[in-house]
Amino acid sequence: MTPDPLNRLVAQLSKLPGIGEKTAQRLAFHILRAPDDYATELVAALQEVKSKVRLCTRCFSLTEGQLCGFCTDPRRDDRVLCVVEGIADLMALEKTREFKGRYHVLHGVLSPLEGIGPEQLRIQELLVRLEDGKVEEVIVATNPDVEGEATALYLMRLLKPMGIRVTRLAQGLPMGGDLEFADQATLARALSGRREL
Amino acid sequence: MDRWEDEALVLSTLDYGDADRLVTLLTRGRGKLTAFAAGARKSRRRFAGALEPGTLLRARLVERHGSTVRLDAVEVVHAFPHIREELPRIARALYALELCRELLRDEEPAPELLSLAVDWLGRLDAGEAGPTSVLAFELQALALAGLMPRFDACTLCGRPPGEAPRFDVDHGGAVCADCAPRATGPRIDPAVLEGLAAIQAGARQPLPPALRAEARGLLARFIEAQLGRRLKSVEFLRSVGVD
């Protein structure tokens, strides 16, 4: 018979995304075998993330205060705003070190088949943010799937009449990719979006 | 183990775990089925771009006895790429796909509905399918599912609906003023019934926006009553201002 506290830990861990029961057991045994400090620090970290991390009131990425580092950094360009679906996309773009503007996180995309409409996303907050007229270009960085395209087109419909330049991330072949192994949809999109040299 | 190849239209997808996807397909041979696409969210080679709703595929499927069908490989037959260029086209396409998905039961062959959907997506892709064509698609899909509403005559007595008809979803269509005490449902403009009856009969001239809006509402109520729930994409169409 496994002790109840261990069963409870396995049950909690297996609720995490991507963690099955076997992995949950492995993690639980790792915690059990680790020094006492480790479990204490893990508990403290979990409690701290729940109590201190919240959404930035301007861009809706993560922060410990009212505004996040992306919104308060004076070196970032106020004239360019990049709209992303989620925080993971923001992190991916930030890793490129190419983008120096501000962000806005929608927390989802329009999804007709799941009944997700504009009211469930941070679109109204985006419009309020753009009212001061500082932003000249909005880069729509939603995924190149049907839902991402629907969201981009919906935003374009709202933002163009405001006199804001709306751009979309380029789509096509990946860097270092092999044309021979490219899928049909990507190759077709790369062909239609070809540029002059 | 059973392996086969079939023409298949992607109706919807659902992420499963970290890397996999459940894909609901309308296949020519076996109707609607849900297939497990292992690694579909991570593999950029095997399924990339192909498992988007509204893509027509040549699909290689595998079924082990008593387990979920597995999607082994796909080849894109038609991606209808121009649908993605306009929000109304995307919204209408996804509505049509949801309607097909909800009208069908699992593994009941529906080759006519597949042909109808593929043909309509083709016209939407070519910019030839406006708002009235959505009504035509709905009526044809309902007819193929055996749920055709009646607009040209009273569903209770068979006489013309007259000047003060009602639309009763429980009786499956129009009800004339004389039969109204035996029916439920709101009064409707006779011009809406005439417009819908004409579309049912094959007319393709666009309905005026006001009639179209009333006809859309009427069909939405009918479909909701037949399915026992409202289609999610109906609310989406409304929220983005597409009819």
Structure explained in plain terms:
The complex is a heterodimer of chains A (197) and B (243). Chain A is 43% helix and 13% strand. Chain A is of the alpha/beta class and 197 residues long. Chain A has two domains: 4-52, RecR Domain 1 (Helicase, Ruva Protein, domain 3, Orthogonal Bundle), CATH 1.10.8; 75-168, Dna Topoisomerase Vi A Subunit, Chain: A, domain 2, CATH 3.40.1360. In chain A, strand 1 (54-55) and strand 2 (62-63) form a beta hairpin. Chain A starts with a helix and ends in a 5-residue tail after the last helix. The model of chain A has no long low-confidence stretch (mean pLDDT 93). Chain B is α+β, with helices and mostly antiparallel strands. Chain B folds into two domains: 2-78, Beta Barrel (OB fold (Dihydrolipoamide Acetyltransferase, E2P)); 130-239, de novo design (two linked rop proteins), CATH 1.20.1440. Helices cover 35% and strands 22% of the residues of chain B. Chain B has six helices and seven strands. Chain B has helices at 87-103, 111-125, 131-144, 190-200, 209-227, 232-239; strands at 2-16, 20-27, 31-37, 56-63, 69-78, 166-168, 173-175. In chain B, strand 6 (166-168) and strand 7 (173-175) form a beta hairpin. At the A-B interface, helix 7 and helix 8 of A face helix 1 and helix 6 of B.
